[in-house]
């Protein structure tokens, strides 16, 4: 039997990280609009002399939609590993982008997200009892046992 604190700890970390990214992506996609994110000083204004325009454009769209979709998947606990891998790529892109724009910058908003993300990657999946992945896994095992 898995200790309740481990189960509650994992679901708390997953939900917090999921909502952080989901709400950030939601704001970029639906409230601000990805075109406005792209045209903001930080994206195009900062990188126009450093990177090709298509790369800046792709990055604005990629990070916005991955934050939205992968954050939503984390909240549901569905395809959790894939969502975490995608969000890790966003954090790497953001770290590179901030470092390129300003060599000495505040890492705090990246670091705590990275710590939460890595925590979810390394804890045993069995601890995440309240997720769609667990429900699907139980259903698949049950139906597999019935057919044997």
From TrEMBL:
Q: Tell me a GO cellular component.
A: membrane
Q: Which residues cross the membrane?
A: 12-34, 54-75, 82-101
Give the source species. Answer: Aureibaculum algae
Please name the InterPro entries in this protein's record: DoxX (IPR032808)
Q: Which domain of life is it from?
A: Bacteria
Write out the annotated subcellular location: Membrane
Protein name, UniProt field = DoxX family protein
Q: Predominant location of this chain?
A: membrane
Keywords (alphabetical) are: Membrane, Transmembrane, Transmembrane helix
UniProt topology in membrane: Multi-pass membrane protein
